[in-house]
């Protein structure tokens, strides 16, 4: 097993996750099987209870693991399926060590950070790296490890120490360190500055790790004299200094690495030069075509994203990527109109009239409306109004998780005239609870107590739009993350009024997909289809939305016919 460690210096948010994913793409294109591990030094056991404002979206895996959004990047770029163990946190490591201490596994010894915590980290990496994630038998060839945070952070010190020991444990030729750092340009001076990277590398070396490759983030390509200076002061060959300058879209990053022969530098450090199955030149024709296609798109499709975390796009990262995958597949340039749900509410018309007017203008000008998942009652009324507008005006609508639930609430209030209809999440005392708390859910513990991971949905209406979009499948497996669900006792009333529950779980009592048969595209899904969308393999529900949003009628008819025939 070979290991590539990606660390970051100077500042956070440099794009270590995309860099690690792109390195994986490059190695995979050379014929190697790749797995990934993300190390998050925070004390939380997982990302499940963290606010999207603080940490971006929570990505959900097949096994129900609630993990850092970088694992979503890994899965999308590499088309793999990871497990919760591929995300290491300080909380998980300490919990494991304390559990062993309570069992008496340490034979009465004093349990310390070194060697017990550091050994646990190394053992965890070795164990997880051997697990196949690409659907094939046998262990992968390379494990790409991303260390979250920035070199020098107090919380990451045990991991730095462990990884230093780990590089010695696996031996020369089996460990490659890629350090991503910043080369800024000061506006006053106008030249690229190497000092931040020099200090970052010095700090890394002081902690016992010497970078093999430097990934230099910058706005513009690095000048040759800057590379020479970095090589001299950081003791890294010029051929191993890779420039990660700004590009038009992140699909160019693997191509940027390839063009600078980064794969050759990595393969050399990992002693892969003489391995026959490793290609000298990465096969990235499809990737190149996709990145180029995205740059050339002209015709637009406007999607109104109605949510309460609109100030931070990372809160809806997977939804955005799923929309992008679908729009590129349909030759459309994606334009996302961010609509804060609070600004749609009647109260906003009095308190913030300009914001209210702008929000409704964006909503009415969109080709389609998407209401993603979320928790809490802030902005819920605005989301209900968005679903109502889409329903009444025949505007394509996709509701995900909470987006499906609020569509049900709107239908109950507007069509069935049940004015008090609500979710018990927002009104525990509602007399018409059309969305209720899961029977098996915990009201005392928040972490890992939702309905999580891959679950099966059966289509009980075979000719519905959703089933056709999924290739007329009898059932599908999608990932879930929710505590509340449609009240099964009210389903007969809803269906009698015209709302169709076309997908259910194996018991038939959990509602998974809703549709309005009379509407051209009004679909709600209790699951999160965005988590399994991939470049070149868009999620069917997102792709179906793009098909229906085609502005050219002839193209629409052809696309629909092709989809139905397939």
From TrEMBL:
Q: Which residues form the Glutamine amidotransferase domain?
A: 313-543
Catalytic activity reported: UTP + L-glutamine + ATP + H2O = CTP + L-glutamate + ADP + phosphate + 2 H(+)
According to the entry, every stretch annotated as the CTP synthase N-terminal domain falls at: 2-271
CDD domains recorded for this chain?
CTPS_N (cd03113), GATase1_CTP_Synthase (cd01746)
State any single GO MF term.
Answer: CTP synthase activity
Q: Which InterPro entries match?
A: CTP_synthase, CTP_synthase_N, GATASE, GATase1_CTP_Synthase
The record's section on Pfam families has:
CTP_synth_N (PF06418), GATase (PF00117)
One GO term under biological process is:
'de novo' CTP biosynthetic process
- Keyword set for this entry? ATP-binding, Glutamine amidotransferase, Ligase, Nucleotide-binding, Pyrimidine biosynthesis
Q: What protein name does the entry list?
A: CTP synthase
Function statement:
Catalyzes the ATP-dependent amination of UTP to CTP with either L-glutamine or ammonia as the source of nitrogen.
Give a yes or no for keyword Nucleotide-binding in this entry: yes
Belongs to which family? Belongs to the CTP synthase family.
User: What is its EC class?
Assistant: ligase
Pathway(s) of this molecule: Pyrimidine metabolism; CTP biosynthesis via de novo pathway; CTP from UDP: step 2/2
Organism this protein belongs to: Zizania palustris (Northern wild rice)
EC number(s)? 6.3.4.2
């Amino acid at each position: 097993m070979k290991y590539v460690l990606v660390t970051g210096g100077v500042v956070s948010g440099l794009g270590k996750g995309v860099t690690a994913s792109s390195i994986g793409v490059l190695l995979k294109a050379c014929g190697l099987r790749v797995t990934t591990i993300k190390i998050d030094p925070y004390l939380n056991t997982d990302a499940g209870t963290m606010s999207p404002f603080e940490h971006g979206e929570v990505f959900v895996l097949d096994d129900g693991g609630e993990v850092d959004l970088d694992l979503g990047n890994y899965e999308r770029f590499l088309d793999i399926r990871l497990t919760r163990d591929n995300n290491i946190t300080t909380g998980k490591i300490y919990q494991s060590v304390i559990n062993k201490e309570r069992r008496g596994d340490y034979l009465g010894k004093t349990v310390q950070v070194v060697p017990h915590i550091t050994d646990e980290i190394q053992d965890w990496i070795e164990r997880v790296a051997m697990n196949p994630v690409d659907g094939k038998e046998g262990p992968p060839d390379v494990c790409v490890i991303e260390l979250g945070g920035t070199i020098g952070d107090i919380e990451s010190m045990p991991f730095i120490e462990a990884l230093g020991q780990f590089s010695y444990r696996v031996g020369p030729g089996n460990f490659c360190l890629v350090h991503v750092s910043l080369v800024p340009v000061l506006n006053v001076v106008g030249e690229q500055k190497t000092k931040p990277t020099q200090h970052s590398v010095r700090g890394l070396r002081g902690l016992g790790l010497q970078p093999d490759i430097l990934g230099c983030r910058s706005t513009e390509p690095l000048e040759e004299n800057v590379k020479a200076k970095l090589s001299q002061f950081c003791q890294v060959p010029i051929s191993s200094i890779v420039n990660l300058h700004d590009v038009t879209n992140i699909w160019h990053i693997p191509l940027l690495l390839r063009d600078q022969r980064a794969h050759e530098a990595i393969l050399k450090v990992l002693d892969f030069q003489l391995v026959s199955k490793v290609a000298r030149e990465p096969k990235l024709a499809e990737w190149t075509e996709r990145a180029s296609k995205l740059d050339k798109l002209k015709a637009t499709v406007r999607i109104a994203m109605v949510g309460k975390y609109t100030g931070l796009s990372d809160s809806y990262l997977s939804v955005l990527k799923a929309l992008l995958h679908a729009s590129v597949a349909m030759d459309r340039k994606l334009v996302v109109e961010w609509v804060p749900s609070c600004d749609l509410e009647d109260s906003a018309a009095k308190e913030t009239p300009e914001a209210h007017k702008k929000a409704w203008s964006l909503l009415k000008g969109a080709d389609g409306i998407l209401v993603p998942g979320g928790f809490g009652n802030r902005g819920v009324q605005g989301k209900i109004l968005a679903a109502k507008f889409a329903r009444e005006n025949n505007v394509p609508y996709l509701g995900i998780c909470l987006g499906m639930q609020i569509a049900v609430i709107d239908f109950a209030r507007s069509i069935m005239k049940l004015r008090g209809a609500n979710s018990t999440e927002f009104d525990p005392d509602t007399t018409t609870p059309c969305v209720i708390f899961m029977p098996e859910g915990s009201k005392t513990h928040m972490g890992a107590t939702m309905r999580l991971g891959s679950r099966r949905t059966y289509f009980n209406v075979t000719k519905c739009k959703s089933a056709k979009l999924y290739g007329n499948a009898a059932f599908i497996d999608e990932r879930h993350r929710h505590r509340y669900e449609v009240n099964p006792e009210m389903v007969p009333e809803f269906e009698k009024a015209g709302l169709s529950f076309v997908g259910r779980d194996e018991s038939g009592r959990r509602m998974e997909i809703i549709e309005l048969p009379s509407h051209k595209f009004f679909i709600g899904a209790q699951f999160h289809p965005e988590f399994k969308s991939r470049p070149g393999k868009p999620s069917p529900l997102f792709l179906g939305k793009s098909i229906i949003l085609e502005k050219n009628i002839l193209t629409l008819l052809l696309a629909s016919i092709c989809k139905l025939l397939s």
